[in-house]
Amino acid sequence: MKFLHLIWCNLKRKKLRTSLTLLSIVVAFILFGFLSAIQQALVGGVALAGADRLIVREKVSIINLLPVSYEARMDRIPGVDFATHQTWFGGIYQDPKNFFMQNPVEPEKFLKIHPEIILPPDQEQTWLTTRTGAIVGRRTAERFQWKIGDQVPIRSTIWSLPDGNRTWTFDIVGIYDGKDKGTDTTPLFFRYDYFDEARQYAKGQVGWYTIRIKDPTQAAEVAKRVDAEFENSPSETKTEPEGAFIQAWASQIGNIVFMVAAILSAVFFTILLVTGNTMAQAVRERTGELGVLKAIGFTNGQVLALVLAESCLLTVLGGAMGLGLACAITPVLARNLAGLLPLFYFPAHDLLIGAGLSLALGLVTGIFPALQAMRLRVADALRRM
Amino acid sequence: MSEDKAGPGPLVRVEGVEKVFHRGSEDIHILANLNLQVPAGEFLALMGPSGSGKTTLLNLIGGLDRPTKGSVTVAGERLDQLSDRALAAWRARHIGFVFQLYNLMPVLTAERNVELPLLLTHLSKAERKKHVETALAVVGLSHRAGHYPRTLSGGEQQRVGIARGIVTDPTLLLCDEPTGDLDRKAGDEILNLLQSLNREHNKTIVMVTHDPHASARASRTVYLNKGQLTNEPEK
Question: Could you tell me which residues of chain A have a Cβ less than 8 Å from any Cβ in chain B?
């Protein structure tokens, strides 16, 4: 710690150069934070997917519906605990930009198969007895300032009521929370029995099934059995673990992880050159001073450590500022992207990776100038004052 | 300030030293079979023309360089036999350097510059502060402690350099042209200070200079010419 003042003063030597380098590091780490949040939003659900859940969709496309009668047949397949279904409603609340998901579900089975959804028991009871009842996640409820007892009109882009009207009105009977931070609390769920009775067409059809299996290690075998059950039927199925389903959904955009890694690699390589150049210049400019330090008794190792510490201080400072700003800004962005990217947040483990990265950046950029400083011969260095 | 830390015999003993620099395929002989003894408490002036090897000899005595041949013993330690790490630790303990161009850190205040050698000791912050105050008081610069080198005159900067050189109470103070960059008045002040350190604090000083006015302040003067020491200047 007693050398900190010396290291800090050396960093302040060329204020403009240090500031610009620091700024570039800050920007790089803000970008790191944003890209981490985007990656989390797009593929974060994979990690949270239930290992004991399979998704069954129509084999050709998820937009093709499946018969509701499949549910009872699925329940009888060995290895299946029970099945339930959801259907894409595609509704708009007031304005298309207010996007969030709304699906009709079977309340009891839905809550049983999704233990990550936390709904107070009294609200659950009300939902079970209210045909037009709907539960909504905390984020959407807060976003639109909905409260229990509100009637919410949602216009479906797909489904009409018998009179041809597409605006459905739901009674908010419950507001649920997520068990984990990563649980999506933006969707609204309402009762399938009400939906099926009230919709104008496609009665008895559902969007996809979610199956809970008895033994997660048997997921592949159970999936095969499900698909075999409906082979050669008018609606053949494709069954896969929930994680793979989410991954495939995200992959429609592209290989998110690869894209994020590629962008960050380019950014950090550039920062590596910028910071490395700053440190190399800093050492070259004060060769004589390093000679003085050695003359008064600093060992080669201490000189190496001083230069490395200076480099690390610069990158860790920039990293901390960048990561801090990313932490501060992502919640603001998340509020605006709540419907499109409900899981948009900067994960804690990426924050730790960022902190480690800032330190590694300092070590890599500092090591060559530090070795150069370490190898300086005192008598030669003193001649360069 | 403490008394001499060396045992019996001369504090500095240079025996049969040769120093050869290699420049390309050419060997440049700077010092040849050179012998020198400096008793503890002496103020020795080392004179000679440019390129005669004065600074090279000073560097050998200060453990900044190693002889090609021969031995350098200071305060009982054979410097040519120490590892780089041991030599650095030895310098921190025994040597104070004063340079012609002061060689202060421009980013540090006078007191922080003086404190630098103390960072290598186990002294607490309060103890370091006390030592720094004492050293600055000895050179008469207590009132300029918080000033940066760029705000000090050349003479003041050199006094800060001397304070840095003596703050650890070294066995030997090595001065390389300490008045070479100063006007006569400032130079005299520095020489007065060195003389006072030698006489009142019994500091052993080896000073390289080409200025007869400076060497006159020393208790002994030796001349270096063509790699050899003499007691008389070259005619």
Answer: 2-3, 5-6, 9-10, 12-13, 288-289, 292-302, 377-379, 382, 385
